[in-house]
Amino acid sequence: MLLDLNNLDCSIRLASCSTGARQLQIMIQMNLYKLIKFIGYIKYYLGLKEHVTIAVNKNIVFHRRRSNADRYPIQMLSVLFDRPWKTSDARLVLEDGSIWRAKSFGASGTQVGEVVFNTSLTGYQEILTDPSYAGQFVLMTNPHIGNTGVNIDDEESNQCFLAGLVIRSLSICTSNWRCTEALGDYLAKRNIMGIYDVDTRAITRRLRQDGSLIGVLSTEKSQTDEELLEMARKWKIVGVDLISGVSCTAPYKWTGNTGSEWEFSNGQNHGETFHVVAYDFGIKHNILRRLASYGCKITVVPSTWPAAETLKMKPDGILFSNGPGDPAAVPYAVQTVKDIIGKVPVFGICMGHQLLGQALGGKTFKMKFGHHGGNHPVHNLRNGRVEISAQNHNYAVDPATLPPDVEVTHVNLNDNSCAGLACPKLNLISLQYHPESSPGPHDSDPAFGEFIKLMKANKLQTV
Ligand SMILES: NC(=O)CC[C@H](N)C(=O)O
After folding, report:
1. Cβ neighbours of residue 83 under 8 Å, at least 6 residues apart?
2. By C-alpha distance, which of 383, 375, 381, 324 is closest to 352?
3. pTM for the complete prediction?
4. What angle is formed at CA 73 by the lines to CA 69 and CA 75, rounded to 5 degrees?
5. Interface confidence (ipTM) of the complex
6. Which CATH number fits domain 90-234: 3.90.1150.10, 3.50.30.70, 3.50.30.20, 3.30.1490.20?
7. 388 CA to middle of ligand 1, Å?
8. Element housing 450 (H / E)
9. What is the tens place of the pLDDT at every residue in 296-351?
10. From the CB of 324, is ligand 1 less than 6 Å away?
């Protein structure tokens, strides 16, 4: 029998098989796919136990009494027709043994990583291209993602390094004048897995309660749940150098600038130019754009670039960038920082701050679930102001391990963790969070001005 599935006159009759007490007859005009789904809703949401009759153009095509085999009429009917809507085809298996069924988008395959939740309301593309997320699945707590698509200007690096993206709802369309591509196509091209239709709220509550968890995301049916769980339990992120996988391999001069339409702090550079060497531990482009806006000429160098070579360039200041993974797993970077501090003004951001903390004699530790989002209140102890900040870190410097001449300048108001350091005698400042934001509020942008002041004062002293 050939059926025009898009235009059928269908009727459903649900009748009580034993008593006949409950009868429901609906005449509707809908396509058969919707009809099948609709019957599923009636049976499972209203809890009806009756047998089902579907009549299509008055020809009965499906009629079954309720029996064990009839418990899933949607699935039974699906053998007759290919379903055009997507069904669950992915699993996220967490190391605590929980299994989350979801729908995949982007790339397919099997990927392991640490699951962290990000509370930013906007800026998923900047988050996807932040190299500090290497080795991590980013779960967005904002439930609706993908509505603005992606564009070439909002990249924070040239690649997506994260393990994958976990979202509640994937926008079915894009609507933005800057959009050049849909999120799913973008991720597929970059071989990054994504899942949607997963209870992100429940996973976030679990992470908040139990701490960040390792997970395995898979679209491969050949892998059993037990195999994926074992993979999650065996994988380690603590103690691993992730910087070497994201840093540039040779020095380069930064030539990009903040487009004038995005510039919000005119006249910051006062016509003066400073040469900054930026260590790329996984640097976000907006750090470079903001430094350029403040009048810096920037040379970006790889994470393994020797301190002596950097000092030979006679920079006015050195920036230690953000970067992925465990700051205690990169002793070579801590040594470079040690060899530099005290000789040139320095500014550390996130991983850079953690490396400075260690170079000063302190220790870092892994937080329960870290800080990831654009709404973290930070108390700037130097001027008394509260900044709403952009954050992305799982580790922090333990201030109790620092020598007395190191000043804690900023405190995260959510958990009182150390959010900024300074050591005036070494011309050193650092922030655990992201003054460049992208995405996030701009409250902390003046930190770049502080770095300029340090370089200026040092320049005056040395002439
Ligand atoms: N954004 C960053 O630099 C992150 C620093 C470090 N990888 C952490 O998770 O704490």
Report:
1. 33
2. 324
3. 0.83
4. 95
5. 0.98
6. 3.50.30.20
7. 18
8. helix 446-462
9. 999 999 999 999 999 999 999 999 999 999 999 999 999 999 999 999 999 999 99
10. yes
